[in-house]
Amino acid sequence: MYIPPAFRDDDIESIRATIRQARLASLVTATSEGPVATPLPLFLDESEGEHGVLYGHVAKANPQWQLAPIGHALAIFNGPEAYVTPSWYATKQETGKVVPTWNYVAVHAYGPVEFFQEPERLLDAVTRLTSRHEGARAKPWAVSDAPADFIAAQLRGIVGVRIPVVRFEGKRKMSQNRPEADRIGVVQGLSASDNPHDREVAALIPLPT
């Protein structure tokens, strides 16, 4: 990922927060048949390994797990994003030398990928993934709510994914390269949007206190 210095995010807690908040990731592997990608939820076990370990699963019918990966796998996590119109910039009124852009948060995680099928490991990964997404609900559903034989049958249809992370790349492009007056204009424009994602980005743009 191309990351100009102004947009680099090396803060591990910020990176972990982006991963936790992402509802869906993309798992990318290079293979002899070309790159293969699968959208899937992943969670980071922060207590395991130096940088943490990502876990998830793919369908057994998905050919990605059967194609030997070349080099490390890449997991992509996207955070808030929004289109930025140059009409919000004070610089537009001054010089007119402005163009549209996009503000966004992204994290790339790299590491060797392991695909596994042991029932106990699959059940553990599925249970932890489910708990993370059900935990905030008023009446959370648990894997144990379903009949054990039904769950066992479901597990036979998936393959687990494990990626010990060897490095992260974090990018937080939030108009840091624009003059203060332009950033204020972007915040005002995004804050007035009906799109909740725009307002979420507005809250992340750095302004003087």
Describe this structure in words.
The chain is an alpha+beta fold. 28% of the residues lie in helices and 31% in strands. It has a five-stranded antiparallel sheet with strand order 2-1-5-6-9. A four-stranded antiparallel sheet has the order 3-4-8-7. A hairpin with a 7-residue loop joins strand 3 and strand 4. Helix 5 runs antiparallel to helix 6.
Largest sheet: 5 strands, antiparallel
- DSSP summary: helix tally: 6
Radius of gyration: 20 Å
Residue windows where pLDDT falls under 50 for at least 5 positions: none
Helix coverage percent of residues?
25-40%
Count of individual beta strands = 9
User: Residue-averaged pLDDT, rounded?
Assistant: 96
- Report the oligomer: single chain
Main traits of this protein?
209 residues; single chain; 31% strand; 6 helices; elongated; alpha+beta; five-stranded antiparallel β-sheet
Question: Could you outline the blueprint of secondary structure elements for this entry?
Answer:
Layout: H1 12-21, E1 25-31, E2 34-40, E3 43-45, E4 53-59, E5 73-84, H2 90-94, E6 101-111, E7 114-116, H3 119-134, H4 148-155, E8 158-164, E9 167-173, H5 180-191, H6 196-202
Antiparallel strand pairs: 1-2, 1-5, 3-4, 4-8, 5-6, 6-9, 7-8
Give a short summary of the structure.
It contains six helices and nine strands; from the N terminus they run αβββββαββααββαα. With 209 residues, the chain is an alpha+beta fold.
